Amino acid sequence: MTSSIATAFDLDILRSRVRDWKTEGLRTALVPTMGALHDGHLELVRRGVQIADRVVVTIFVNPKQFGANEDLDKYPQDISGDRKKLEAVGADLVYVPNNREMYPEGFSSVVSVKGPAVAGLEDKFRPQFFDGVTTVVAKLFNQAGCDYAMFGEKDFQQLAVISQMVRDLNIPTTIVPVETVREPSGLAMASRNAYLSKSELQLAPALYKQMQVAAETIRGGGPRSKAVALAAKALTKLGFKVDYVEVRNAHTLDEVQGENEQMRILAAAWLGKTRLIDNIGV
C-alpha cells in the first residue's frame, strides 16, 4: 500500500498549496527535517497538528551545514518510509526540494547569526554549521510562509540561533519549541543513532545519565564547573571522546554568572564514529 500524502517537489506547488489554505483562513505549521524520520521528528508533527490546521514537513539534506569531513554522503535517507510515517501522524504535505531548487546556479547569499551561534559550543567544533542552518531555514520560511515552525529542544543551540534569526529579521513565523523525545534508556532520539553498533547503543545512554548527575549536583549547590568536569571525566572513562559538557544560561547560552539564572547543561561526545549531542535543564 503506497502513501497518499501530498508531495511537492518544487516551490510553485508548495506555495500554491499553502496559499490555498491561507485563503480558506487555515493556520499552517512547518516542520523542517533532513529525513530519516524517527519519533522525535514525528512528535514535532504531532505538535504542529495540535496548534495548526495544516502541517507541511520539509525533507532536504542540506549540504551547506556539513563540513568537508562530515557524513553528508552517507546521511540516512528513506523518502518512501518517511512519507508513510508522516501520513500516519497527520501531516498534510511533504516538500522535497532538490539541490537545484534550494541552491540554483549563482546562489551566493548567506544568513549569518551571531549571539547564541558563537557560544563556543557546536560552533567551536562545526564552524560552518550554523550559517548553513540559518540560510536554509530562512529560505524554507520564505518559501512556505507558514504561521508556525516546530523545532526540537534536542538541538538546543540550533533552536536558540533560529529564534534569534526570526527576532532579528522580523520573520512572521512563530517558533514552537518541542521537548526532546527519548528512548526508554534515556538516549535522545536522533537520525545518527542508526550508525551506532549494538554495543554502542547500550553505552550511549550514559551521556544523558552523566548530565543528570551533573544537574543534580548543581541543583544541590555543588560547584558548576566541577560537576560538568566530573561528567566529562566519567564519559571519557567509559570510552566517549568528549567535545564538551558545559552549563550555560538557558536563554543566551552565555557563561553562567549568578546562582539565580535559568541554566542548561549541553553536551556533545563521540561514541565510535557517531557524534551524539544532548542537553537538559538544571
Describe the secondary-structure layout.
Layout: E1 6-8, H1 11-23, E2 28-33, H2 39-51, E3 54-59, H3 79-88, E4 93-95, H4 99-102, H5 122-125, H6 129-144, E5 148-152, H7 156-168, E6 174-178, H8 198-203, H9 206-219, H10 224-238, E7 241-249, E8 263-271, E9 274-281
Parallel strand pairs: 1-4, 2-3, 2-5, 3-4, 5-6
Antiparallel strand pairs: 7-8, 8-9
Helix pairs in contact: 6-7, 9-10
Tell me what the structure shows.
- The chain contains 10 helices and 9 strands.
- α2 links the parallel β2 and β3.
- The model has no long low-confidence stretch (mean pLDDT 95).
- The chain folds into 2 domains: 172 residues, HUPs (Rossmann fold, 3-Layer(aba) Sandwich); 91 residues, Pantoate-beta-alanine ligase, C-terminal domain (Pantoate--beta-alanine Ligase, Chain: A,domain 2), CATH 3.30.1300.10.
- The longest helix has 16 residues.
- Helices cover 38% and strands 19% of the residues.
- With 282 residues, the protein is α/β, with parallel strands linked by helices.
- The chain starts with 5 loop residues before the first strand and ends with a strand.
